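Collaborator request, handled under Task 6.
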Amino acid sequence: MVSRNKMLNWGGGGNLGKNKNARQNAFTLVELLVVIAIIGMLVALLLPAVQAAREAARRMQCTNQTKQVVLAMHNYHDIHLRWPQQRGRIRQEITPISTNPNAGPHYGFGAMYQILPFIEQQSAYDGIRHGADPGGTVRTDPEPDARSIVFLRTWSVPAFVCPSDPNGRSPYVDTRAGNEDRGPMYRSSIRLSTADIVLNNVEHGNYSHFDRGQWLARAPFIEWAEHSMTSFRDGTSNTVVVSESAISASLTSDFTIKGGIANRSNIYAGVNDINAQRCMEVRDTVNKNLIAATYRNTDGNWRGQRIFDSRPGFTGFNTILPPNSPNCYRDNVNSWGIFSVSSYHTGGVSAGMGDGSVRFITETIHCGTLDAAYKPREYFGTTSPFGVWGALGSLNGSESATL
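Structure tokens returned to the collaborator:
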């Protein structure tokens, strides 16, 4: 017979053992806090890596889209034996045709519109060309911002918008008086090169400060110029034709360096005085990402708006200031000025060359002596005064041997 003491010892010992094991398997508060701290450290270490990987993927996509735009221009050249033109010949393709080639808003249609059939957007091209909106109504106001807007309410070109740009993911709605019927405007991260030309980005008929022939031959997408492959005297691999540029977040209140446009009239102080450094001086002294209050513009921050318009304030850039520099206009926010390339990538932008390749242009690219006074008549047709970046923009600056 088992004694009563042994039974008590077995029962008591068993219970005591179980309680002891339970205490040994539990977490203390200190141990729990240590585990949480370790998890937090791992997240802190991994999150930047994940974000960097996502940005690398977005940058790769932007690079691919830039390349697709250049290849579309090459395909256009194969058919028409010329590059798509800013203004000029396009007026003959839009109906109704004006009897005065220099009048009427329809001559504003630029190269971005002309390449639509070569990026699988033939139906949109045909609709805008013939003036019929999706409901079949024929419009009589053939201009890029009003005529095409009926399509852009429900349609956009994915290849025109870089996924890194937060302002390109949705259309901008112009709520100003008189513009409500135009609906939302889809936007573009792609810009077209006007090379190192500051004055007369849009032709106004005044050539007192330069030779018109040299002006037309200087840039891939200066208005009224008609180029073929033979125009690239410096070589297609040495000439940038398109690049990224950040889209304005607001038409009237974007005061950021990337998306806004500063009012800086003295970038042109006379026929013989073009000073790019004056545009660099519009940065706010406290927040370098903003335009200083003195130079802020509320007339229209049009960077990336009206994607088919030929005016450089909408769809152009200069190879003068380095990437992520300010944009400045002289006397017309859409026309004369210095318009820079920019992006939300780290350290620079993707730029498409004339041969179809894409290069990453860094913020440290050599841009010459910016605070000197330059005379267009003296450097058009020869080496750009704006360093390597200016040389990459000009078609015939004879700089290819030194790049």
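The cover message to the collaborator said: "The first helix runs from residue 4 to 25. The beta strands are 172-173, 184-185, 190-193, 240-244, 262-263, 316-317, 328-329, 337-338, 348-353, 358-362. Please let us know whether this matches your experimental observations."
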